[in-house]
Specification:
Length: 682
């Protein structure tokens, strides 16, 4: 290796193997994957977060799916071999051997010399491991750090192709028999010209082969920027991404380098298509979990690819072929919406948080409450209220501390806030941790002030509910919307989830202001259970759109709950083209049009911008958000937004999330989206 920086970088890359072994080990300890060898190889034990567990679970499943498929399809051949590139402290060989799957297969593992030496020493020093291999006794020669009958561990830098070839030959690799190459988050750390050369070398030298890759994709969206920044800070830059930014580019890469078949899918698609439903459910219930947005974003930024050549048709592909992607192609965009940082006159920075709620308590005064974010220089569930007030075209931000009977009640995420008058708002539900039972309701009381200023004090009172109304409160990721029935005002609480139910489909009518539970008949097709959907008041009823349904799948349905003489009726609104399924968005209604803002969907090719649905015709138009004037990634999920009809502007407040182990991203400032060009009156 030439330069000093390249040396330190290769050292950092070696470190990624150790940290991934620790994460896999933690996932195994919680029952995500069955692997008793990980703890022997990982060295140190650390408990990781549920989101990390899911990430390593899907990675292990994708690799196992393809490896076991290869072994199954070639089981009647006299000999096959597996070559794991950059294997680190992986337990693959020991797992396969223990399962009795290596009758005629030799496993070769290659990694940096010092990693291979460490692993060899570990195996020799541990009875459970050395007994499985049947150590052939002799110390490894040169680059061969360990040699058993069906297991060879080689210490070679993958980017030195001629040396790799020589060492593999020395270790007994046979070019003429079917070979499976595995590169699990490895190629991306190499310079693209070198990884390309390796892919081509494998195709040219092995007449019958398969190549399995698992690594990152989609570098240019907000999550991709945060992901890239993380790896750059670790000095382990992701080199493949610039040249091969999406699944299609990776597929073209392999087909252009000598491979004849190539199937590729991102991990959302893999999870949905290749993991049986009962197994999906098992994993989804292993531990309390409430980070759906980050989980789906992580999955849209990693892919699994299986390429092959010269193999019998019956042996390929290792992945179902994706001729028609399950999320068909890019979403057509009708235009763009400009985004600009909100002009601020003075005051504290904008609320940096997610999972919060914002509400317009009177013209030009916005109250934001709850969520997880930055407070007093640290990340926590936020306790302070945040008030934005507009004066002469500029927004001023102030923090209002709450006087609250029990501080715990003020620290909540995924609640709702409904403004009932300019001096009164109601907080419904929300949670502290995902295993909590959910929180009840709070009254927020504001002093009557002159119209121009916001409250400098918010009195908080617990709401004592009748038992019948209590069920409405113990939930989160739900919606609360004002409706009118026979001239009376009600709050309609719908959907969400609870500690016991991962998704709810029930609803409650609470008569305001005393919040008594009212049984009002509802007819019509009942919407699928959902949480993280949007709900808007419209013509006395409610518009429900999107959300995350059962089995953690995004929904694309839109329903109207409309008033009839004796109750309400659910009515499905057909959209064309069909609304792309999404959740964790916000929504507003303006002049017969439903505006959906941001959210998460499974279309990796772009992130959701603003979608406008004409409620008369069902016509659905998508607009991309132009972020060229922002200096930071704009994450439009877990945000809140307020529509300012006079200016035809949307004020987006907060948003972001915990991006896997890449760090927490919080949008630093409120952002104004100008909708005047797309809301030209009919």
């Amino acid at each position: 290796v030439g330069s000093g920086s390249a040396v330190s970088s290769s050292r950092q890359v070696q470190g990624t193997g150790g940290s991934s072994a620790v994460s896999k080990c933690s996932a195994a300890a919680r029952g995500y994957i069955q692997d008793r060898f990980l703890r022997l190889l990982a060295g140190r034990r650390r408990r990781r977060a549920p989101l990390i567990h899911r990430g390593y679970y899907i990675r292990a499943r994708a690799v196992d799916h393809c490896v076991q498929d290869f072994l199954l399809k070639t089981q009647n051949l006299p000999r096959t071999q597996i070559l794991s590139l950059g294997a680190g402290f992986d337990s693959l060989y020991f797992r396969l051997k223990d399962m009795g799957l290596l009758h005629h297969t030799v496993v070769y593992e290659v990694d940096f010399p010092n990693v291979a030496c460490q692993k060899a020493a570990l195996i020799k020093g541990m009875k459970e491991l050395s007994a499985l291999v049947g150590d052939t006794g002799g110390e490894g020669l040169g680059a061969i750090t360990f040699s058993g009958d069906d297991y060879k561990l080689l210490g070679v830098d993958l980017s030195e192709l001629s040396e790799l070839e020589r060492t593999l030959e020395e270790a007994g690799l046979n070019n003429e028999i079917p070979t499976l190459f595995i590169a699990e988050v490895v190629l991306t750390y190499m310079e693209s010209t070198r990884s390309d050369a390796l892919i081509q070398w494998a195709a040219e030298h092995f007449p019958q082969a398969c190549f399995l890759v698992y690594e990152q994709v989609q570098p240019e969206d907000p999550f991709g920027h945060v992901m890239q920044q993380h790896f750059r800070q670790l000095n382990t830059a992701l080199h493949s991404l610039a040249r091969y930014p999406d699944c299609e580019a990776q597929q073209r890469r392999f087909l252009g380098k000598g491979w004849t078949e190539c199937s590729v899918m991102d991990m959302n698609e893999f999870f949905t298509r290749c993991i049986p439903e009962d197994e999906q459910q098992r994993v989804q219930t292993l531990e309390p979990f409430d980070e759906y947005e980050e989980w789906h974003l992580k999955c849209s930024h990693y892919f699994v690819l299986a390429a092959s050549k010269g193999m019998e048709p019956a042996w390929t592909p290792l992945l179902p072929s994706v001729t028609v992607p399950h999320h068909a192609g890019p979403v057509g965009m009708a235009g763009s919406v400009p985004a600009a940082v909100c002009a601020r006159l003075s005051g504290v920075p904008g609320p940096r948080r997610f999972g919060h709620r914002s509400v317009l308590i009177k013209p030009n005064v916005i109250l934001t409450m709850g969520g997880f974010g930055e407070e007093d220089g640290q990340h926590c569930r936020t306790r302070n209220f945040h008030v934005l007030t507009k004066h002469a075209g500029y927004w001023e931000a102030v923090c209002v501390t709450q006087n609250i009977p029990d501080k715990r009640w003020g620290e909540r995420l995924y609640h709702t806030v409904s403004c009932l008058s300019d001096t009164l708002a109601l907080v419904v539900g929300g949670r502290t941790s995902p295993s909590s039972t959910g929180l009840g309701m709070l009254w927020l009381k504001f002093p009557k002030t002159s119209s121009a200023s916001g409250p400098d004090d918010v009195a908080v009172e617990l709401v004592s509910l009748q038992p019948a109304a209590e069920a409405a409160a113990l939930r989160w990721r739900h919606s609360t919307t004002e409706v009118t029935f026979k001239g009376d005002q009600y709050l309609f609480v719908y959907g969400g989830r609870s500690a016991l139910q991962p998704v709810l489909g029930d609803w409650h009518f609470l008569h305001t202001p005393e919040l008594s539970y009212s049984a009002i008949p509802v007819v019509g097709p009942v919407p699928e259970s959902r949480h993280s959907h949007s709900a808007c008041s419209w013509e006395g009823g409610v518009l429900i759109a999107g959300g995350l349904g059962a089995a953690e799948q995004p929904l694309g349905s839109v329903f109207l709950l409309r008033e009839l003489e004796h109750g309400f009726q659910w009515q499905k609104i057909d959209t064309h083209p069909p609304l792309v399924p999404r959740y964790s968005h916000t929504a507003h209604v303006h002049e017969g049009r439903l505006l959906l803002v941001g959210g998460v969907w499974f279309h990796a090719s772009s992130v959701p911008g603003v979608t406008v649905v004409d409620l008369m015709t069902g016509l659905c138009l998508n607009y991309v958000i132009n972020v060229e004037h922002l200096e930071w990634p704009l994450m439009l999920h877990n945000h809140s937004s307020v529509f300012l009809p006079d200016e035809k502007e949307l004020l987006v407040i907060g948003g972001g999330g915990n991006c896997l182990s890449f760090g927490t991203h919080l949008n630093p400032e409120p952002v104004l989206l100008s909708l005047s060009s797309i809301l030209i009156s009919h």
